[in-house]
Amino acid sequence: MAQSATTDTFAAALTEGPCSQGFGEPTLTRVFAAPRELVFRAFIEPEQFVRFWAPAGSAVPLSSVTIEPWAGGRLEYTTVTDTGVSHPTLCTFLAVEEPETLTYADHVSGVDVSMVLSDLGDGRTRASLFHRVSRTVPRL
Q: How many CB atoms lie within 10 A of CB 102?
């Protein structure tokens, strides 16, 4: 299955906009051996989110996670390093279009993140995370 019109339009807008002009706003991409709907669920179900979100040597305790997957809802969690240092994160979802996109404003970093999930047609999904300096929600 190909990308939907929504995904294509969104991805094109990000790659053709100011972020594509070399201002240091990164894009991360990963391919999962799973259908798009399952990958989307992994990002919005706390029990799955805690299994992969923290970097190596860190963990996200399930008790710290709040995910309200709708525009205006919260994404809140704490990453704890192996030395016990806690890093709380507070985000607000700006857009949620299941199973294609999640966009949220990270109030801690001042960055907006848009995750676009693309169905690669063979049971695999490409997840691309586009980061840009927040233009929608002021830093706390």
A: 24
69 and 93 Cβ atoms separated by less than 8 Å: yes
What are the tens digits of pLDDT across the range 68-84? Answer: 999 999 999 999 999 99
pLDDT tens, position by position, 50-65 = 998 888 899 999 999 9
Residue 107, token pair as written in the block: 């109030």
Written in H, E and C, the secondary structure of the chain is CCCCHHHHHHHHHHHHCHHHHCCCCCEEEEEECCCHHHHHHHHHCHHHHHHHCCCCCEECCHHHCEECCCCCCEEEEEEEECCCCEEEEEEEEEEEECCCEEEEEECCCCEEEEEEEEECCCCCEEEEEEEEECCCCCCC
- What is the value of pTM for the model shown? 0.77
